[in-house]
Every structure is written in C-alpha cells, then in structure tokens.
Amino acid sequence: MVEVRVAGVAIDSTGQHVILLKPVDAPEGEGSVVPIWIGAQEATSILVAVENATTPRPLAHDLMRSMIENLGATVARVEVTRIEEGTFFAEITLTAADGEHTIDARPSDAVALAARVGAAIEVAEAVFDEAGMPDMLGEADDEDAASEASGMPAGELPKVDDFMKFLDEVDPEDFRG
C-alpha cells in the first residue's frame, strides 16, 4: 500500500468530477497520481473536508463521522484496494472496543470520511500500476514569468494545463481492465 493525499478535485471535459490521489512523499510534478471519477456530491463533500469549510447542516460524511465517534470507534485507515472492470473498490478500517472492522466502501466515500477524521488514505500498488498517470500538476512552461505575475514564489506554481488536457481527452473506459 502507498499512503496518499488528495492532490485535487477536477472536472473532466464531460463534466465528471475526478479526485486525484498522490503519494504523500512525492513532490509536485513528480511521481504518479491516481484519478478516480466520482459524483458531484462526493466531490463537494471531499472539498469541504479538505478545505475545512463549514456547512450549515452536516453532510452525509459528517453524519458518518458522528456515528462512528458516538459508537466509540475510530477510523484507522481507508484503502483503495483494487480495480475491477473499471470500477475502483475501497475499504474503511474501523477500530472499536471489540477490535478492527473492515467495511466495503466507494473510494469517494472512504476519502471523504478520511479527510474529516484525519485518517490515512492508502492505495494498493496494483492500483497505481493500472490507473496511475504521471503527475503534471507542478510543472510550468515559464516559471519565472508565472511566478512574477502571480506573486507566488517559483516552484510553488501548479501547472494544470497539461493535466487538464489529459482530462479533456481521457475516457473513464480507458481504465477498464
């Protein structure tokens, strides 16, 4: 398993939301990312958690967190375990008084919950091998000019043009086994 972080949430050319998972120890623009297509509500829920935003009422994943906490359990980790016929599978591992419990989940729900409770997110190496793609989020064509224009230091500018081009051209069917 490879520990990952949410590198971002994007929208492809068909309007589908994509979550990007990247190894925690890989610098921007290096290594691989795993894109997983998710629903709009799940994308919103993940962004709310990652950005520590507040909502007027609890979202479904806030409810999940509250239920788990009220039952005296904790989320030990979430894992994206495999891909079957283009569908990603995940598991949530809970620790409770009577031991560990593993629950089948959609990756979007698992990641949204992990982002709320600070649990580790892991992706199986076989998933990286099958669905991983080069990370192009940190590259820049003219980093100095872009840095000057944005006021951000060089090296901290995300370049998403190439990645967005990939998202425009890719079809989720490309990841079917």
Automatic annotation (TrEMBL):
Domain of life according to the entry: Bacteria
Pfam families given in the database record: BFN_dom (PF02577)
All copies of domain BFN, residue ranges: 1-135
Region Disordered, annotated ranges: 138-157
Protein name per the record: Bifunctional nuclease family protein
